[in-house]
User: Fold Enoyl-CoA hydratase from Acidiphilium iwatense.
Amino acid sequence: MDYEMIATETQGRVGLILLNRPKALNALCDQLMTELGDALRGYDNDTAIGAIVVTGSERAFAAGADIKEMQNRTHPATALDDFIGKTWEVVTTIRKPVIAAVAGYALGGGCELAMMCDIVLAADTAKFGQPEINLGVIPGAGGTQRLTRAVGKSKAMEMILTGRMMDAAEAERANLVARVVPAADLIAEAVKLGETIAGMSPVATAIAKRAVNRAYETTLAEGVGYERATFLSLFGTPHQREGMSAFIEKRKPEFS
Ligand code: CO8
Assistant:
């Protein structure tokens, strides 16, 4: 697929996806989301890639779903089409770790896209918000659920009911992001993080990602049971032998 609204670039073992619709502050229209889904799947199926970074511009990671495109949608046609499920949730199906590197606005669907990624790294310029209430609607790509799980009920309610934005420092305090870095270093830091992850056992990485995501979906007892079963299954892999031998032999492990 030829891309018009995103750009892709490989740096080492990290697949970088740049949302690239600057005039619309990376508003997430159908075409952009389709291209993003295609690029994500492509990197997921590429054995040379160990982690994926999704980023935007200095001004905006993404200012939300494209309001101009959404304006004339009607119900029930919109519901029957399931356009949200088809294009927006691809990122949640990716096996490799996906890092959102957020500078500037991450609003509405942009904040939801960042929260669907596995790790959010924020520039000190990042601003997060769910301003849909100002448009007479509510978040529609998981915002009411993922923001609440990330920052707790009171702050999520305040943000969703008023449309207030959160700056990077507050987002870090509230556990919405893993870390805040200077804006000038954002991509380099995200790629470095991706490289670190890509250097680990790809099997352990994929299983660790799945196990952490289970914590959102299940009870503690079931989640711990899932962790135990998958932990033990890793003793059937050469990577467990390599990782433990390397530690004992005081060398760096080689996970092929
Ligand atoms: N959709 C379409 N165009 C947008 C969007 C958007 N979300 N955001 C900005 N733009 C466009 C503007 O229309 C403007 O275009 P033009 O120059 O042609 O008029 C251009 O980007 C620059 O924007 P501004 O002039 O407004 O720039 P400012 O610096 O003054 O303001 C803001 C920046 C604060 C980010 C402002 O643009 C803004 O408030 N944007 C809208 C934010 C918003 O409400 N987001 C939520 C959208 S709804 C949503 O995301 C629901 C998701 C549901 C799930 C998925 C379903 C599809």
